[in-house]
Amino acid sequence: MAEKQNNEVKLAVEKCPLTSVTVFKDRAEVSRSVETSVKAGTNELKITGLVDIEQDSIRVEGRGQATIAEVSFQFTYCNEDEASMSEKEKTLTEELKVLKEQKKSQDSEAQLSLLQKQWGVLDRFATNAARGSQDTNSGFKLDEQYFKGMKDFLQHFRDVGEQLDAETLEVKEKREEIDEKIQQVESNLQEVRGNRRRSTCIRECIIVLEAEAETAVQLKLSYVVLSASWVPSYDLRMNTEDGVLSVSYFGLISQNSGEDWTNVKLHLSTAEPSVGGTIPILPQTQVNLFKPVVHLKPKSSGSVLTFRSSARSASSTSQAYDDRLQRQASPMSAVPVKIQETTVSASYEIVRQSSIPSDNTSHKVTVGIMELKPTMTYVSIPKVVPHAFLQAKVVNTSKFTLLPGKSNIFLDNSFVAKAELQAVAPKEEFECSLGVDPGVRVTYKPLVKVNSSSGIISRVKVVSHEQAIEVKNVHNYPVTVAVKDNLPRSLDEKVKVVLQSPYIDAKHPEKSEATLTVDNTVVWEVKVGALNKSDLLLKYSIELPMGEDLDYKTY
Question: Which residues, 6+ apart, have CB-to-CB distance to 57 below 8 Å?
Answer without folding.
Answer: 29, 222, 223, 224
